[in-house]
Amino acid sequence: MVSPLTEEGVAVVIVAYDLAPKGALDRMVDQVTQSITFVQTRYPGNQGIYLCGHSAGAHLAAMMLLADWTKRGVTPNLKGFFLVSGIYDLEPLMHTSENARLLTTLEDAQRNSPQWRLETAPMPPKDPACHILVIVGQHDSPEFHRQSREFYQTLRQGGWRASLDELHDVDHFEILWNLTRKDFALTQVGRVPAPWTAGVLPSPPPSGDGGRQGARGATSLALGYPGSWGA
């Protein structure tokens, strides 16, 4: 994932968080929030922060749409979200073996479900220009397709700038493996102008060193969240 982006001048940050059973969902969400706060504080002159998460990582990235940044004393320059094959409604997981590690109650699941929270208490986007790309693989399971479609619809109904894209001929894991390829849809950096289409991360503005002057200056930052809740 890193090389195709860094070669285009994007600074990439891979974020770790405590996995279950050591880390509960609330703790994971808090750690992800801390990571964005740190990056924005460390590099206040960035041209945009783009969050990318796969599977459980997409869930954690989506939770940042609901974060109360006033408690952090910072307003991150969030410009885009790449939510890849994510889970946005955690309640169905309570009836699966996955919950044996998460130990999620109904209240936990609802509090940490961006789908449920946006349905029950709709909130307008903090930045109407921020684009959310909801992505699912053609051969992902029906549940991933359902959740991606319904989350996209909820975002659109709430006034968020969202797109839904199905990537052909890939399953849940092939999407992740293909992120190392320069010719893959999700790593086509700066190939089209904004407003960007599916899978295209805007390139940073040109600078004297070809846009590679570092995150403190004019480059964009991509924060990646691995796709697992549990060890």
Oligomer: single chain
Largest beta-sheet characterization: 6 strands, parallel
Report the C-alpha radius of gyration, rounded.
17 Å
Q: What fraction of the residues are assigned to beta strands by DSSP?
A: 15-25%
The secondary structure category is alpha/beta
* Helix/strand order, N-terminal first: HEHEHEHHHEHEHE
> Which architecture does the CATH hierarchy give at level 2?
3-Layer(aba) Sandwich
CATH class: Alpha Beta
* Strand neighbour order, sheet with most strands: 1-6-2-3-4-5
CATH topology: Rossmann fold
CATH superfamily membership:
Alpha/Beta hydrolase fold, catalytic domain
Q: How would you concisely characterize the structure shown here?
A:
This protein is α/β, with parallel strands linked by helices and 231 residues long.
Structural description of this entry:
The protein has 231 residues and is an alpha/beta fold. The chain has one domain: Rossmann fold. It has a 6-stranded parallel sheet. Helix 6 runs parallel beside helix 7. The protein is globular and about 45 Å long. GO terms for molecular function: hydrolase activity. Keywords: Hydrolase.
Keywords:
231 residues; alpha/beta; Rossmann fold; 8 helices; 6 strands
Write the layout of secondary structure elements.
Elements lengths: L1 H5 L4 E4 L10 H18 L6 E6 L1 H8 L14 E7 L14 H4 L3 H6 L2 H7 L10 E7 L4 H16 L3 E7 L6 H4 L43 E5 L6
Helix pairs in contact: 6-7
